[in-house]
Write the C-alpha cells for this entry.
Amino acid sequence: MPGIGAIGARCRHRPRRRPVHEWESGGEASRASGEGALETAIWSFQFRLIVLGDSTVGKSCLLHRFTEGRFPGPRHAEPTVGVDFFSRLLEIEPGKRIKLQLWDTAGQERFRSITRSYYRNSVGGLLVFDITNRSSFEHVYDWLDEGKMHAEPFQIVFILVGHKCDLETERQVSREEAEELASNCGMRYIETSAKDAINVEESFMILTRDIYELVKKGEISVRDGGKG
Amino acid sequence: MSQKDNESLKEDACEPDENDQKTEETEASEPDGVEPEPVAMTRKRPEAKTSEHVASQESLGHKEKILESSLSDGSQTGWNYWGSWGKSLLSTASVTVATVGYGISNVIEKAETSLGIPNSTELHSEAKDATEESQHFEEGNTHKGEAESLLPISGALGMLSTLSAAVQNTGKTVISGSLDALEFIGKKTMDVIAEGDPGFKKTKGLMNRNSTLSQILREAKQREEQQQISTDVSMATEKKSHYGLFFDEFQGLSHLEALEMLSRESESKVKSVMSSLSGEKLNILKVEVEQLKEAFSLAEFCDDEEEEKRDEEDFTKEITDLFFELHISTKPTKLTQARNSTCELVKSLRVQTVKADKPDEGDGQVDSGDAGQGDEKSVEDIHTLAIRSLAELTAYSIEVFHKAAELFLHGQKEEVLAVDRAKALSQMTIVLCKELSSLSKDFATCLTAAGMEEKADVLNPLITGVFLEASNSASYIQDAFQLLLPVLQISHIQSRTELTQF
C-alpha cells in the first residue's frame, strides 16, 4: 500500500492539542471540546523533510537561509557529515502552523549509505541540484530512484529545486529541461537562491502545502507525536 | 496540575459556547469505538465520570479507560511533573510497547520481555491472529479509514505516560482499526501487567531499553509545550525553562532519533551476521562482540568527591583527545564551545551574585538572557539559563555520539580497533557526565547566592530542578552511549570481514 500506513516519524500530528479541522468533520471537530483554546497551538503537524542532492549544490545553505534567514557564505563550506538537522515553523495558512523537521543530508558519495538509513522517515523531500552544474542535474534521477527505493513502502513527496539561480550567467541547465524532468517525475520545479534569498520560503511552502493537501485527503497517514 | 490545566483550558477556550462544548464532550464518547477523546482527556476527567462510562460502554475507548482507572491511581498523583525521573521510567514502558507499530506480535513480545513475563508463545500466537484481523480491517479501510481513524488517535497519544498508557498505545498504534483485536490485546496486556508487575517496580529495568529514549524525551517535550501553551496564553513573557523544549531546540531529539535508527539497523545486521555463522567462526565472533559489550559497561562513575574544579582547557583537551582516539573525521567543536560558553555564563552569574550587595552596579552581565528587568538575573532567570545550558550540552553530546556512529559505519576505514573506540567513548561519557554534574553544582551555587532573599519554597524547587535535569541529562548521555554498542559491533564485524575474508 504505497503511501499509506502509519510510519513513525514521517508526519506527525500534534497530540493533545488538536485544532479543529474542518476536514476532520463529524466527531472530531466537536470532540475538541475544552481544548478549543489550543487552537493557538504552536504547531499542529510536524513534517519531516529530507534534503537530497549532490555535494556542493547548496543544500545546507538553503536550509540555513530558510531556518535562520541568513546565508552562511562560502567560508562556511564544511561539507555535511552524515545528516544535520534544522527545524522551523511554517504557517501555511493563517493559524495553521506546521513544524518542519529538516534532515540535511550529506551529498558526498561516501556518506551515501548513511543517508539511505534516513529516507524512510521522511514524508517529503527537496531534491536539489545546482543550475550551474550540469552533472548535479543529471544525478537527479539517481537521487530520485534512491529516495523512492529506500523509502519503500512509503512514498515521499518530492519537489525539484534548481539552486543558485542568482548565477544566471553560469547556467548549464535550462529552466525548460528542468521543468520537463520534474513533470515527468510528477514533481514541481522551482528555482532558488540561498544567497539572494530567492524563492527559498516558497519552495518549502509549496512542498509543505502539497504534503498537507495529501494529508488532508488521507493519502498520507499521520502519526502522532508519541511515536516517532 | 491537572486541575489547574483544566481550568485554564476552559477559561481560555476561544469558542464562547462553553456549555455546548461540555455537552459535546460527554456525547462524544458514545458513538464510535476508535474514539480517542477519553484518553486525551485523561488528566481532566474526574474519576466518577470514568467509571460511569465504563459501566455503560463496551467500546474500545472504554476498555482502555478501565485499564486506566485501575492503573491511574498511583500514576496520576505521583508523577505529575515531568522532570521526575520516575515518570519517565514509566514512559519508557509505554513507549517501549508502542514503538514498533508494525506488528502486534512484536509489540506483545516487547511488552512481555520488558515486564519479564513468561508464557510468550501462547500470547504470541494469539497476537498474531489479532494482527491478521487488523490487517484485514485496515486493507478494507485504507483510504478513507486511515485518516479518520488515525487522526483522532493521534490526538490521544503522547499524553500517556503511565503503564496503562502502554496498553492503550499498543492497541492504538498497531491496529488503528480493529476493535476486537484491540480489546483483546488491551485486556491481555492488562492482565499481564497486573500480574507481572503489581507495583511497577520492574519498570526501572525498562530504562535499559534505550531504543526509545527519544520518545520519552519527545513525550516530555510535548507535555512541556502544552503546559507552556496553557500558561502562555496569558503570559507571553513566561519564558520556558523546560528542558525538553530546549533539548529539541538544539536538535538533540533529532540526533537521538537518528542515532536510534542507526543503532537499530546495526543491531539487526549484527544478528543476521551471527545467525549466518556457525561453529568456530561464530564462537570467535561471539567472544569479540562480548568484549565490546564489556567495554560498554560503564565503570560506576563516582560522583567526584569535590574534585577540584577543572578549568575549561581541561575539559576541551580531554574531550578532544578522546575524540582523537576515535579516529573519525570530525571534531566536537560545537560541544566544547557550548561548554565553554556555559562556563562563561556561570562566571558572570557569580560576578552578579557577588555584586548583589551593591545593586547600583549592574554591569558585566551576559546579555543573552531575556531578563526583562535590567541586567540582574532573577533566580528564575538563572534557573532557566541553567536548564537551557544543560539541555544544550546534552543535545550536543548526543550529536557527537550520532556523528561518531555515522562515521564508524560509513567513514573511511581506519586502523583502529572497535574496542579502543569503545573505551574512548566510555571515557568520554564519563567526562561528559562529570562535567554536567559539576556545572549543575555551579548553577546551584549561583542560585543559592542569588536567592538569599527568596523564601526556601521558591528557591528549593529551582535548585532541585537543576540537579534533577542534570542527572537526567547524564542518563540521556549514558543511554545514547549504549546505542553505540551495536554500531561498533557491526563496524567491527565489517572491518574484520574485510581483513580476513571472514
Remarks:
- Chain B touches chain A through 76 residues (CB under 8 Å).
